[in-house]
Amino acid sequence: MSEKKQKKPSRQQVYTLLVQVGRKDGDGLPEGATGAALMVYSSGVDEAEAVRETVAILKQADMAPLDVTGYGTLDERLEQGHDINAEERELMDRALAENAVIVAQMTPFFEDE
After folding, report:
1. What residues are paired with 51 via a beta bridge?
2. Measured distance CA(16)–CA(5) in Å, rounded
3. Strand 33-44 vs strand 64-73: parallel, antiparallel, or unpaired?
4. How would DSSP label each residue in 57-98?
5. Residues 92, 112: Cα–Cα separation, whole Å
6. How far apart are CA 96 and CA 86, in angstroms?
7. Tens of each residue's pLDDT in the chain, 113 residues
8. Separation CA 23–CA 72 (nearest Å)
9. 3 lies in a domain?
10. Which of 15, 28, 84, 95 holds its CA 20 to 30 A away from the CA of 56?
């Protein structure tokens, strides 16, 4: 008689990160942009892993990550009083389900701003 192996509960959580990127050939940023800010949802067992995964993915996408600011997990953000809408929660759920890095928003920077 074989027992089904019970699946361990995942320790993965989704972290909200703000990533600043510079310019690099092939980065896909608009012409004239000096860089961009990316709002990212990234899964990881801790924030450090989420940051490492995000930086690796962005480098694979020919982007030049310069700085990462972590805003914590959904629960941590709620404790801080952040207002998190349904669309944002959906993207977080997707990042967790797919064990993925999801760029939710990109804001390019221009010299004259």
Report:
1. none
2. 33
3. unpaired
4. HHHHTT-EEEEEEEEEEHHHHHHTT----HHHHHHHHHHHHH
5. 33
6. 15
7. 445 555 566 689 999 999 999 999 999 999 999 999 999 999 999 999 999 999 999 999 999 999 999 999 999 999 999 999 999 999 999 999 999 999 999 999 998 75
8. 27
9. no
10. 84
Side-by-side strand order, sheet with 13-22: 64-73, 13-22, 33-44, 101-110
CA dihedral 105, 16, 71, 77 (to 10 degrees): 110
Amino acid at position 95, single letter: A
Specify if 79 maps to a domain. yes
φ, ψ for residue 41 (rounded to 5)?
-110, 120
> How many structural domains are present in the chain?
1
> Does residue 83 lie in a domain region?
yes
Number of residues written out for the chain:
113
Residue 56 lies in a domain: yes
Q: What are the phi and psi torsion angles at 68 (to 5°)?
A: -130, 130
